[in-house]
Amino acid sequence: MGNPLDQVYLFGLASRRAEWLSNRQVVVSENIANVNTPGFRAKDIEDFSEAMETTRLAMAGSSPLHLSDVSGRAVAVDEVDEGTWGTVHSGNSVSLEQEMLKAGEISRDFALDTSVVKAFHRFLLTATKG
Q: What pLDDT, in 10s, does the model give residues 26-38?
C-alpha cells in the first residue's frame, strides 16, 4: 500500500503542481538555450488550471478486477506567438527578458507551494498529536 499522505488531496494536488512547474521550467530552459538558434519559436505549456481540467483525478482500484482509468497525463507544449516582445531577423521569437521573467515566476510558485505544504503538514501533525 502507498504512503497514507498521498490520500490527502492537498498533497496530491501539490505534487501535481510541482510536476507541472518542473515541466514548465524545462520548456523555459529550452527557450533560453535556443535564444540564438535561427528560426526557433518560443514555446510554453498550458496553464495549470487547464492541465487540471484535462487530467482530472482518475479512479483507482485495489484489485485488477475493479474499474480503473488508465489514461496518462500529457503536457501540451505550444509555440508562443502572441505577446512576444519581438522577432529578430533570423526568425527567432525567444525574448530572453520574457524567459527570465517566466523563470522567476516559476521559482516563486515553487516557493509558495512548498510553504503551503509545510504549513499544512505542521497543521496535520498538530491535529493528530492532540
A: 999 999 999 988 9
C-alpha cell read off for 35: 535564444
Query: How far apart, in whole angstroms, are the C-alpha atoms of residue 48 and residue 20?
Result: 7
pTM: 0.66
**Dihedral angle over CA of 31, 107, 123, 15, nearest 10:** 10
**Using an 8 Å Cβ cutoff, are 39 and 92 in contact?**
yes
For residue 77, list its beta bridge partners.
45
**What are the residue ranges spanned by the domains of the chain?**
4-83+92-129
Full 3-state SS string of the chain: CCCHHHHCHHHHHHHHHHHHHHHHHHHHHHHHHCCCCCCCCCEEECCHHHHHHHCCCCCCCCCCCCCCCCCCCCCCEEECCCCCCCCCCCCCCCCHHHHHHHHHHHHHHHHHHHHHHHHHHHHHHHHHHC
Which among 82, 20, 15, 65 is positioned nearest to 45, based on CA atoms? 20
